[in-house]
Write a structure and sequence with these properties.
The protein is mainly α. 77% of the residues lie in helices and 0% in strands. The protein contains 9 helices and no strands.
């Protein structure tokens, strides 16, 4: 998995990798590949799953740290984008596969986004209760936030580093608008 992740980071697309090439990159015989994965699809699904687990855990840590005084929105957006920039190969793979005709990869990528959204919605409800603020439609707010952040993050992969900051600030403002709207709807 590490060998494929490194290859993806170099700009390769997952669908251009062959089983033999993956085995060679990993320093194993092609037949040894089957001890770990049924086929290339199994490897791709495992990569998406690992990436998703890492992202969810990362966002949990950010929220815990943000509860100590830092803006949870800013901390979450900046951390997510740092992760996307630092893992460009996997980030591109997830975007490509979410648009793929291959249903297993598309389903796995969509599952990741749903998991991120569900997790965010649970946090939003918890945080609103903690602050004593009514919240309307937390799941829709979370869905919108995840969609905006992943769309922006993926688009930023092709944006020069010196131009990224204004897009990051725009994403933070969009998320704040969503949250303010959700809070306003909770009061209605």
């Amino acid at each position: 998995m590490d060998a494929v992740a490194a290859e993806l980071a170099s700009g390769r697309s997952f669908d251009t990798l062959s089983l033999r090439e993956v085995a060679k990159l990993a320093g194993i015989a092609p037949t040894s590949f089957y001890r770990h994965f049924h086929d290339m699809e199994g490897l791709g699904l495992a990569l998406i799953d690992e990436h998703g687990t890492t992202l969810v855990n990362l966002m949990h840590r950010v929220r815990e740290q943000a509860a100590e005084g830092r803006s949870v929105i800013r901390a979450s957006v900046e951390t997510l984008f740092d992760y996307i920039f630092g893992n460009q190969g996997m980030s591109r793979m997830i975007l490509q596969e979410s648009l793929s005709r291959q249903s297993a990869f598309r389903s796995a990528a969509e599952k990741l986004l749903v998991t991120m959204s569900r997790d965010l919605a649970e946090f939003l409800v918890w945080d609103a209760d903690r602050r004593g603020v009514p919240l309307g439609h937390p799941r829709l707010a979370a869905d919108s936030t995840v969609a905006i952040l992943f769309t922006t993050g993926i688009a930023l992969l092709d944006t020069p580093a010196e131009e990224r900051e204004r897009y990051i600030e725009a994403a933070i403002i969009k998320v704040r608008m969503i949250m303010r709207g959700s809070e306003a709807m909770g009061q209605a």
